[in-house]
Specification:
Layout: E1 2-16, E2 23-25, E3 47-48, E4 51-52, H1 53-61, E5 66-69, E6 93-95, E7 101-103, H2 109-119, E8 122-127, H3 134-145, H4 151-158, E9 169-172, H5 185-197, E10 208-211, H6 219-228, E11 235-244, H7 254-265, H8 267-281, E12 288-298, H9 315-330, E13 335-341, E14 351-354, E15 357-360, H10 362-370, E16 377-383, E17 397-403, E18 409-415, E19 422-429, E20 436-442, E21 461-462, E22 466-468, E23 472-477, E24 481-487
Parallel strand pairs: 1-19, 2-5, 2-13, 5-8, 8-9, 9-10, 10-11, 11-12, 12-13
Antiparallel strand pairs: 1-16, 3-4, 6-7, 14-15, 16-17, 17-18, 18-24, 19-23, 20-21, 20-24, 22-23
Amino acid sequence: MTTLKMTVNTYNRKSRINPEIYGSFSEHLGRCIYEGIYVGENSKIPNTNGIRNDVVAALKAIKLPVLRWPGGCFADEYHWKDGIGDRAKRKKMVNSHWGGLVEDNSFGTHEFFELCEQVGCEPYITGNLGSGTVAEMSEWIEYITFDGLSPMALERRKNGREDPWKLRYFGVGNENWGCGGNMRPEFYADQYRRYATYCREYSGNRLYKVACGPDTADYDWTDKIMANIKKDMSAISLHCYSWFSEKRACELTLENCVNLIAKSRNMEKLIKGHKEIMAKYDPEHKVRIAVDEWGTWYKTEEGTNPRFLYQQSTMCDAMVAAGTLDIFNRNSDIVSMANIAQTVNVLQAVLLTEGENMIKTPTYHVFDMYKDHQGNTLLDTFCENEKLEMNDTVYACSQSASINEKGEVFVTMSNCSADKPFDIDIELIGKEAGEISAKILASDDYLAHNSFDRPDAVKISEYTKIRETGKGMLVTLPPCSIAAIKVK
């Protein structure tokens, strides 16, 4: 068996890993909100104020830190006043982006904040810059956050919420280079400055304003946004999907899977490329990157509406998730937030529902294994690696490590080879290998997944194939596996 050398240097402490890097995204798309999250108070599915209890419990278990809503492309045709007040009287609309279905607006601002309160996560709202007005965006923030006498605060109280909510994260538009208005970057920058001016901060609330950043490798967009927005911007977004639209998730060949992982590993190059451009205008990196849409994108499952973007999640997706989260950890000096697309029943979902049943996908289990990185300090790591024979741009192993305030070291790693195990000889610099505990997610099939018939076909197990060495520990990493190790 090949042995790879890895070092974890506890003396070389780097940036803080923001918990928000482990965020998610929920859009009015397919069955993400309706059926997936919200079923209404009269549903036979166990719920609290209309929100599924099983979904809330699952999201709490992975310590979901932040949830983005209401889109996505839907955000720039969403008019928030249609989603408040008596549900029976709420204005209906056509969801033109996602299937042309009638949106009845029964899930709106109050329901979203109720969801976030139940889960215990930060709300992240994307405002409508594409088809909405400055006044509309300004009044939404006033409605949510103002603790005083004003038309919007009085309207909120009339609708049953006396105290304002706290809202930190606010996106000023979404994909305005595309579905959010097909704008040029210079035009969007002018619009951002105008709209952001009226995103006021009320009653001690502080907004972290996210500007619409680039689509994948559109470095020119980043350059022009940074050149033309000089203040009042906390971060720019970055959207990047790993596409394979010709096949469904469970139809991928091994070569398809490896190529998909290669696409996902390009995230590091993208982050560093945009960071370099941003540094020309902001050398201290006060403006960060929010990767608020990322994940895999396949042909939708047979028998489902193509515009609902419903797909399975396999061990291949788990490899994508693990490698991508490692990338975000390693670049936490510039990446302040990330939101996988999406939470339930859409794209690389962490949860799938069918009636009253819910399953956790392999991607969910990755987030569960990685959650202990949240809020830790990144540690310097280096791994002697080996490239895959099928694609020499892909290294077999991915890794990241962090340390918490107690001095406990947390290491995550994955082996995306489908047939080759590795021994990872980890040297811990500056720390003795004390009490060690580990978990693993592994399968001998890269297409292994959970179904409603077999909800636990892929699950986390305790892992014991670790032994202490004089300088650290030796870990046996099987093919197609992800491990999380804690050293106290």
